[in-house]
């Protein structure tokens, strides 16, 4: 059984038909990327997993559970964590308080061990524990947003445009961390990116979303070499 299965998923914002019959799977241990232009529906696809907006048609299963039947709050407890576009860390809280907030739904018995793991993966955070999160650089805030999500011990990590607006050095670091989380920790990751080149290089498989529908799917390598993908998403950027 796939970890995540979406079948014929439709979603609307009022009159806007944002998803038009999406089929997608994520297997345990994979990095799957979703690429597409602005407004293609990438964020919407991720948000339907949390019921915001709720899929109006189709099927969404996470492991053996039907996600269309549970609340947003229950989904967080079921092991899906989202790092939203724009990071949305708690700016006025310290780095440590942000990490504590991330662990709210997790088994508190693992809290100290989890913190130690975060410091190993993100050494910069340990140096800034008492600093207000809003005073970190953009790249550091992205690290914190990822670490905060990991503190909930997710089985599936959703990353919405993690490289957006970052300096090149942090962009490389974000993709290195994505790879390391997958290879060293076995984390399953669904990655939305406009930076198609980096995303397809790091992903096992990818999907191209256009106007709310999947128009192409393949391995990262296949999509990197696909002439349509190259013309639309690689050569222009
Ligand atoms: P971006 O990279 O710009 O975030 P995206 O591929 O993630 O693009 P979505 O944000 O999912 O695209 O948007 C898909 C469509 O739904 C667009 O037409 C967008 O204008 C519309 N949309 C997104 N969020 C809302 C909302 N909260 N209310 C109304 N319409 C929305």
TrEMBL record:
Recorded family membership: Belongs to the ABC transporter superfamily.
Name recorded for this polypeptide: ABC transporter ATP-binding protein
Gene Ontology molecular function: any one: ATP binding
Gene3D superfamilies reported in the protein's UniProt record: P-loop containing nucleotide triphosphate hydrolases
UniProt KW Transmembrane keyword: no
InterPro entries noted in UniProt: AAA+_ATPase, ABC_branched_ATPase_LivF/BraG, ABC_transporter-like_ATP-bd, ABC_transporter-like_CS, BCAA_Transport_ATP-bd_LivF, P-loop_NTPase
Residue stretches making up the ABC transporter domain: 4-236
SMART domains: AAA
Domain of life according to the entry: Bacteria
Keyword vocabulary terms for this entry: Amino-acid transport, ATP-binding, Cell membrane, Membrane, Nucleotide-binding, Transport
């Amino acid at each position: 059984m796939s970890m995540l299965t979406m079948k014929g998923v439709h979603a609307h914002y009022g009159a806007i038909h944002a998803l038009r019959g999406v089929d997608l799977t994520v297997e345990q241990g994979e990095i799957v990327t979703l690429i597409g232009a602005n407004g293609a529906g990438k964020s919407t696809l991720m948000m339907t997993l949390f019921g915001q907006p709720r899929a109006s048609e189709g099927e969404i299963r996470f492991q053996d559970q039907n996600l269309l039947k549970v609340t947003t709050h229950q989904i967080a407890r079921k092991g899906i964590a989202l790092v939203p576009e724009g990071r949305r860390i708690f700016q006025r809280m310290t780095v440590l308080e942000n990490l504590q907030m991330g662990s709210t739904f997790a088994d508190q018995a693992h809290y100290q061990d989890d913190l130690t793991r975060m410091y190993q993966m993100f050494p910069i955070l340990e140096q800034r524990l008492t600093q207000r999160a809003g005073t970190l650089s953009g790249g550091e805030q992205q690290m914190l947003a990822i670490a905060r999500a990991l503190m909930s011990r997710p089985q599936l990590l959703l990353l919405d445009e993690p490289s957006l607006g970052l300096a090149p050095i942090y962009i490389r670091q974000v993709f290195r961390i994505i790879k390391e989380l997958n290879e060293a920790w076995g984390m399953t990751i669904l990655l939305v990116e406009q930076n198609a080149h980096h995303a397809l290089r790091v992903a096992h498989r990818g999907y191209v979303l256009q106007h709310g529908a999947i128009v192409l799917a393949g391995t990262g390598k296949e999509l990197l070499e696909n002439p349509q993908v190259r013309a639309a998403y690689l050569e222009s950027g």
